[in-house]
Specification:
Length: 341
């Protein structure tokens, strides 16, 4: 393992095998769509970004020189590799590409270092096996815990505050899991609340404190139109029963309510205005047995989170509130109606 200056990373890992057939590559092809976010992360957090080590195979001689000749087992020193050697990234090609882009925007990052784990190149089969082994047990963390631990993103901070302090959500949000267990006593997941609040504030130019205030006020305005939420807080109903019988605590319903709220916030910042606009939602039958949800919020009796189903759920709520649909929402609605006619 070596600490390598960032300025050397693009110079060392020069070759590009994107044009090779999959069976003669030792890496997946580069997904360039991932690079802007990774690059922005480095550039915007130059003092405290965190990257895991790159893993590379070296087709060339490697020589380790210890900094101590005392024979005491010192494992620190220098690794010497000829620049004519060929380097193959087994894990971390997107980090390498993002580092290259970040250096173009901020050359001062060149003196920063990243850990690189070097292996001797034992041939294509070994390199391919290394890639398979490195990714075999990789598991993406659940989004809820990502939101819980994210202290950079304003939306994540806002969602945590809502979950921990809002009278609507306090004590009823699972902060770790993005899917609730059948017997969970929670009504919502943190990831669903974050997505819904992101939808609520989408495109609004608000300062952080103002956005937090409006988000809290909006969800408190929604609470009276969904009486089962309050019944769970008062222990008149159990959370598992509510999730089983109704869809209003599922992510798609929260997200749809957030989109409805975004329309309301664009016309007024007054909770009194929202309350009057939201009042018609008291007539919505949120129960799973309502046949109107099939094809909209549910497919085959199961809640669906697809973009199309989200839009159809939003449309259903807008219709109850006598609100106009956007051109895109109308297109999706027309296609749905043609399919059921």
């Amino acid at each position: 393992m070596s600490m390598c200056p960032l300025r050397l990373i693009p110079k060392i890992f020069l070759f590009d095998d994107d044009e090779l057939a999959p069976e003669v590559r030792a890496q997946r092809t580069l997904n360039k769509g991932r690079l802007p976010a990774l690059t922005r992360y480095i550039v915007e957090n130059p003092d405290d970004y965190v990257f895991s080590a790159l893993t590379a195979s070296v087709d060339g001689e490697m020589r380790f020189e210890s900094i101590s000749d005392s024979g005491m087992g010192m494992r620190a020193g220098q690794i010497r590799i000829p620049m004519a050697a060929r380097f193959l990234i087994n894990d971390g090609q997107h980090r390498r590409a993002a580092i290259e882009q970040a250096l173009k925007e901020n050359p001062d990052l060149g003196e920063e270092t990243i850990a690189v784990v070097f292996f001797h190149d034992a041939g294509l089969a070994r390199c391919q096996q290394m890639f398979a082994d490195l990714n075999r047990h990789a598991v993406r963390p659940q989004r809820s815990i990502g939101v819980l631990y994210d202290h950079r993103d304003d939306l994540a901070i806002m969602a945590r505050l809502l979950a921990m302090k809002s009278p609507v959500f306090k004590g009823h949000v699972d902060l770790e899991n993005s899917t609730l267990a059948q017997r969970s006593r929670k009504l919502f997941t943190l990831s669903a609340l974050a997505s819904a609040t992101q939808s609520l504030l989408h495109g609004l130019d608000l300062k952080k404190d103002k956005a937090q205030q409006l988000a809290e006020a909006f969800w408190e305005s929604v609470d009276p139109v969904v009486p089962e939420w309050g019944m769970v807080r008062r222990r008149e109903l159990a959370a598992p029963e509510v999730r089983k019988d109704y869809i209003h605590s599922h992510g798609i319903a929260l997200h749809a309510l957030g989109r409805i709220g975004n329309s309301l916030l664009r016309t007024s910042e007054s909770p009194k205005v929202w309350e009057s606009k939201l009042r018609p939602l008291t007539s919505v039958d949120w129960s799973r047995t309502n046949p109107d949800w099939e094809g909209r919020a549910m497919i085959g009796g199961r809640v669906s989170k697809s973009h199309q189903n989200l839009t159809l759920t939003v449309n259903y709520l807008r219709r109850h509130m006598k609100l106009e649909l956007s051109p895109e929402e109308q297109r999706v609605e027309d296609a749905y109606l043609r399919g059921v006619s």
